[in-house]
Amino acid sequence: MEPYTVDVSPRDNVVGDIALYIFESRDGLILVEAGPSNGLDRLRRFLAKKGYTLRDIKHILLTHIHLDHGGGAGYIVEENPDVKVYVHPRGAQHLVDPGKLWKSSRDTIGEVADIYGKPIPVPEDAIVTPEDGVLIDIGGYRFRFIYTPGHATHHMSIHSIDSGILFTGDSAGLYHGGTVIPTTPPPHNVEKSLESIRKMTRLHPRKIGFTHYGVAEDGLEWLHRYEVIYRKWVRLVEEAYRAGRGIEEVYQYLQSTDLSVAIQERFFRERGYGEAEILLSLYGIYSYFRWLDERA
Questions:
Q1: Are the C-beta atoms of residues 246 and 58 closer than 8 Å to each other?
Q2: pLDDT digit of tens for each residue in the chain (296 aa)?
């Protein structure tokens, strides 16, 4: 069975920014991602159309805990204490006590954090921390959890064996308008990201389920495309860093030469928040090379 794709973008006038995915199982509803807390009203409305409520959700599988992916989890568990939340071990403590997550989000993305909404704690006994590579049967569906750090140290990608969809969170970029670009805000790790791409590629997924946004056919091809684009961004940023130039030059070059950047920037402008997304991603890669030099 194919999952439902549910738009949980935090503003009702925005379409196609943040997705979560719902599987109907013999053990109740399974969510891949929880979305932002300010997207929960859209989730409630979708569930109501299908004859469900939040109390029918039994499992939430998070790729990572950033506000647009996991910010709604605590509120769902608050309404339904039977829910189990699957998260990378390094992210679990920040679900239980989201204070540091909220502060770092405000520091990094500013007002966008307020647009996503403030998270509330998830009880520790609701949390499941899968091991890297483990295959778990959940309500009759098989999910393989793969650690894919780079975008975040606590990032997982989740492969639905039965649907053939690999849910990549932010580890394979942003998918809008038939294009894909990296999302690499600081702190970012290039070496780990490249290894994560290799791990995902070895799964040979039939489809990619992007949180931003939607399911793309020819999953393996999209991973190959993403790697090419990601390596290009890394090369351009490293060249600028080694030459003592700022990321603004890289940004202007991409704006003038890369149609994918133009398409995605138009989407960012139309949604009305996070217009500096690409600059923030370039800075994340730039800061990685600075970190390497400081560590040497």
A1: no
A2: 799 999 999 999 999 999 999 999 999 999 999 999 999 999 999 999 999 999 999 999 999 999 999 999 999 999 999 999 999 999 999 999 999 999 999 998 999 999 999 999 999 999 999 999 999 999 999 999 999 999 999 999 999 999 999 999 999 999 999 999 999 999 999 999 999 999 999 999 999 999 999 999 999 999 999 999 999 999 999 999 999 999 999 999 999 999 999 999 999 999 998 889 999 999 999 999 999 999 98
Full residue range of the structural domain in which residue 40 is found: 4-228
**CATH value at residue 102:** 3.60.15.10
List, in order, residues 6 or more apart from 276 with CB less than 8 Å away: none
Question: In a 3-state reduction of DSSP, which class is residue 83?
Answer: coil
Amino acid at 62: L
Looking at the structure, tell me whether residues 134 and 195 fall in a common domain.
Answer: yes
Beta-carbon count within 10 A of 120 CB: 16
Lateral strand order in the sheet of 57-61:
4-7, 19-25, 28-32, 57-61, 84-86, 127-128
If one counts the domains in the chain, the total is 2
What sign does the dihedral 9-58-101-155 (CA atoms) show? negative
CA distance 61 to 69: 10
SS3 of residue 210 by DSSP: strand
CA triple 105-109-110, angle to 5 deg: 90
Residues 122 and 206 occupy one common structural domain: yes
Terminal Cα-to-Cα distance of the chain (whole angstroms): 50
pTM above 0.85, yes or no: yes
